[in-house]
Automatic annotation (TrEMBL):
Annotated catalysed reactions: L-histidine = trans-urocanate + NH4(+)
Organism superkingdom: Bacteria
Family: Belongs to the PAL/histidase family.
GO biological process entries: L-histidine catabolic process to glutamate and formamide; L-histidine catabolic process to glutamate and formate
EC number: 4.3.1.3
Pathway entry: Amino-acid degradation; L-histidine degradation into L-glutamate; N-formimidoyl-L-glutamate from L-histidine: step 1/3
Keywords in alphabetical order: Histidine metabolism, Lyase
Protein name (Swiss-Prot/TrEMBL): Histidine ammonia-lyase
Enzyme class: lyase
Amino acid sequence: MSNLSPITIGRGPVSIDSVVDVARFNSPVSLDAAALITVADSRQIIENLASDPHPHYGISTGFGALATTYIEGDRRAQLQTSLIRSHAAGSGPEVEREVVRALMLLRLSTLMTGRTGVRPVVAETYAAMLNAGITPVVREYGSLGCSGDLAPLSHCALAAIGEGDVRDASGILMSAAQALAAAKIAPLVLAEKEGLALINGTDGMLGMLVLALTDLSMLITTADVAAAMSVEGLLGTDQVFASDLQALRPQEGQAVSAANIRAVLANSPIVGSHAGPDDGRVQDAYSLRCAPQVHGGARDTVTHAVTIAERELASAVDNPVLTVNGRVESNGNFHGAPVAYVLDFLAIVAADVASMSERRTDRFLDRARNQGLPPFLAHEVGVDSGLMIAQYTSAGLVSEMKRLATPASVDSIPSSAMQEDHVSMGWHAGRKLRRSVDALSRVLAIELMTSARGIELRTPLAPGIVSAAVIAHLRSVGVQGPGPDRFLSPEIEAASAAVLDGDVARVARASSPIELS
């Protein structure tokens, strides 16, 4: 499964990096022994309430609009199982493995706070499933982002009780019963409140937020590299990125992006060819000149979203929840609004970064604006189309991203007989952000392909060391340089993979004397 060190759950809030390590890179998990004792102690509170003749929500009552229905003791195990079966009502394509693993880990993290009242065996079963690589089949649609990501989490809980479908560590589809048996994991038999505790959280939308934050942090640095290479290839000026100019507007993200662009352009012979007092290019187009402002605004948005994510990672989201002084209380902490808002915000800035990138790509292809390069960077003008249609692809992606930037969190459809009359739609915000992140990586890849070709067409002028390293990496993964027209789709896919995997950002950082942030 993984050579990474185990992530211990229960010693405190799980970190963003730890979530990514488990979800994406299969790091194993272990459970803190002291936290398990706390889990066992809190379970005793639930056991005491279960014998109380007065109704307690989720323990001896129905759920949602049926919260006033008292359930006798001999029917409560069936109540919890029925809850999971009925709520596992997802539809549509399978959700990505890393998202399912993230939401399982985050639910496990909440279980280990001792605030949900489950038995230790419930947490142990989730940890065992993660370590065995068992991934429940979760469907695209089903969550409204309130009362938790109910359907997605229910599909995971269904697998834990040995029902429904899963994929094993090799990705093979099989029944949950088969997978648990193969991993020697006993199916859970749920007791009072445990079914509810497994599905009442923001874990799906939070998992998608954490994964997106990791990707966007890298992609914004990649956007800085791409913008700098476009400035270089279009014979733009580096003067506008000077630190004293940036300091006149002390936005933190802007300063970082400007420093990155300066690092890429440092000592570039191409830039040097038109530098100095006679350089009249002080009014480059906004897509070149204002890159630090747009990329920096995106960076600051990511920083804000990290704050929200870290607060959510430190939360114990359940309903009802056990307070630190032993009360069991209904609450509204499962409402996904705080997470949904930043998921939508990130989709907005991702679309804008992509929009600016596409404009730089287009500038390379227009002989009226590309400072002497051939139209569409074609090899034989008129016979070859060059990168003409690559720009179409980029434009189509940006148009899609603009639609994806429409907020999901402003919508609400009441459910559960009007008991749940305002919902967050945070799951949907997370789903569209994932598509937006993928699209951004492709738009940046096309800009990098274009700027690399433009730079090489400036020969004998040479690029700076960062650009040269990025171009060499692109060539090594199958993205060819200038030449006659050829089948372009595989090159776009190769460049996109190099961007989304973080290879371009890593190559740029490794080749710069100033580490790009």
